[in-house]
Design the sequence.
């Protein structure tokens, strides 16, 4: 059985950015998003509001 993969587009969080995180779980995606935000957007703190926006942008298809 193939593993379902989730993804999250940085653009869907409101950034003008083509980054996409892929992973099997929300936690994998959150880790990638946090690393990307720090590296490419200078966002070193994931606030509860930002975390909510990222999680709501995670898609399963
Ligand atoms: Zn981005």
Sequence:
């Amino acid at each position: 059985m193939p593993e379902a993969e989730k993804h999250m587009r940085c653009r869907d969080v409101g950034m003008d950015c083509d980054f996409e995180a892929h992973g099997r779980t929300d936690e994998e995606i959150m880790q990638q998003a946090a690393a990307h935000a720090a590296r490419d957007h200078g966002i070193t703190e994931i606030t509860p509001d930002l975390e909510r926006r990222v999680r709501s942008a995670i898609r399963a298809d």
Observations:
- The pocket of zinc ion is lined by residues 10, 15, 17, 19, 36, 40-41 (CB under 6 Å).
- The helical segments are 26-41, 48-56.
